[in-house]
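Sequence in, structure out.
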Amino acid sequence: MYNELYAAWRREIEEASLGGLPPDFYSRLADYLSHISEENRAPDKKSVKVNLLDHEACNVERMLEELLKARYKKLIKTITQSQKLPSELLTIEEAKMCSNFMSFTGAYQKFTKELMGGHFQIQVQDQTSPEQIQTAAQIFVKVVTEPKHKRVALRFIKNIPGIIGADMKTYGPFKIEDVATLPAENAKMLVKQGLAVSVEVS
């Protein structure tokens, strides 16, 4: 499972398009995380096996967090641009959540079109709670508002291939001594990995 997660994480980080995941990916991943947690409860905390599992758990947590963030941003972008649900690329859980979002965007677009055309009709649906309306509104605001990412200037000390930034734009590839500005999230990671150093801009 670790190798499968690593491959999925790397694909989402490096490629601009949304990658596909098996329908049961998250359920199997949950079982895997549960297994690691149980193994880490071993009495001998100083054993080599426990130390390796602890290191593995940290890597899994970091990759999973970055994978989920990347997929969330790509899903929102894909759905709003194409108005289609890429069901063949989604897990069972993602497909269910996205279908709710598609229902909202479709209904809102229909409402906008009718209102602009002077054919406004009040339609009340008892099944929609205030909490659901608020959640949908928050998602809508996230989609239509372009996030502003703080940028950091870097000087590259190693050659690296192109990467997908936190703002979903492609940067690179970069060669040694290239200077560029990237979103702060990506810049921090590149500096931490010893691939670049920050540059003070006066």
